[in-house]
Amino acid sequence: MNPIAEQLNASLDSENPHVLNMLSQLGKELFYPKGILSQSAEAKKSAHKFNATIGMATENGEMMHLDLIQKTLSAYEPKDLYPYAPPAGKPELRSEWRKKIILDNPSLKDKTFGTPIVTNALTHGMSIAADLFVDQQDPVILPDKYWGNYNLIFELRRGGQLHTFPLFNDQETFNVDGLREVLFAQKDHGKAIVILNFPNNPTGYTPHEEEAEQIVSVLLEAAEAGINIVAVTDDAYFKLFFEDSIKESLFSRLANLHPRILSVKVDGATKEEFVWGFRVGFITFANTSSKAVDVLEQKTTGLIRGTISSAAHPSQTFVLKALQSPEFTGQQEEKCSIMKKRANKVKDVLNNQKYHKLWSYYPFNSGYFMCLKLNEVNAEEARKHLLDKYGVGVVAINATDLRIAFSCVEEEDIEELFELIYQGVNDLLAVRS
């Protein structure tokens, strides 16, 4: 093992050995190398004559560039577009995003948590969490309604074992008892990765206050029972809260809660700021030990250096400028209001009694999506039929559930969308009879 990695692990062992035990073997071996980038950083500060350290080109005192590209980006200086961003991300952006996290989650104000590290959107952030903490057969706990990419990230790539529980109980609220049962079943293993994705993809559900308190209570109980917990909050659709759900990330409640709980927040501008193609995400750590958080940030930076080197600089600049703009909050709230109106329209449409014979729907109060539960027709058959006959695209989650992204349907078109789904399902029932 590299001496730098050994030193980082020794620091973790002295500060919080529980966090060291949470790391995968890869996580234990990770470090940020003292190579070209660190030497270049030193040269940037002190090489006042010539700086010939890094593979970039300059011309006439600024970053070399093609005029045809710069003309399309003339609102930005070349220095904010063309150089490599640091592996951990543009420092100003990291600082600005940390301020935003506190603004959006006021209960974090007096808690200890790290500075967000820039990722290539949220998928990359979840992949970093998997690399850091998941080894073969490590239990990854999540509801049975989950984003399918978790299979690739945690199971296929890292060999983790997904353990699911029904998302909803008989009262159609978050199934806290199911979470507790699956989590405590891992007691002999001594470690669990818990994925908390709210607003939930695919159902669009976010817990209410009482449910959130119960989730936190279960995790604390498990930690006190000796289980090391990596609590990963996938906050991809954060801010898109339409009803009386919690409005803060569970990251806030789990931060500094117990030495055996490491809270990991994965979020980003992708969905929150409606800039999907920019690919700007963040990963942030919180634990009772600030030094443990610092070690994890160094290991994460090393992991980024060894994979993508760094995230794209222009996208980081665009997001930074947006966050610094006085118009940002108003414009973001305007778009969130549009999404809320679409969600409310979906509920109004689904109140039509004729639909109740063909399907029910899972509770939803946030995010981009909602899910129908078909009563008699196979979801995949319905999906194909809707696409082939009516030109309607939806996603089949399993044998019964169809995910509907109302985020990409205008409010005035929502009624027609569900009418076509109704017709398509009836077509299949008619063939069957």
UniProtKB/TrEMBL annotation:
Task: Give all residue intervals belonging to the Aminotransferase class I/classII large domain.
Answer: 68-419
Cofactor (UniProt): pyridoxal 5'-phosphate
Q: Name it.
A: Aminotransferase class I/II-fold pyridoxal phosphate-dependent enzyme
Q: Which InterPro entries match?
A: Aminotransferase_I/II_large (IPR004839), AspAT/PAT-like (IPR050596), PyrdxlP-dep_Trfase (IPR015424), PyrdxlP-dep_Trfase_major (IPR015421), PyrdxlP-dep_Trfase_small (IPR015422)
**Pfam families xref list:** Aminotran_1_2
- This protein's superkingdom? Bacteria
Q: Which GO terms describe its molecular function?
A: transaminase activity
Task: Give the record's family classification.
Answer: Belongs to the class-I pyridoxal-phosphate-dependent aminotransferase family.
Keywords of the record, alphabetical order, are: Aminotransferase, Pyridoxal phosphate, Transferase
Q: Which organism is it from?
A: Scopulibacillus cellulosilyticus
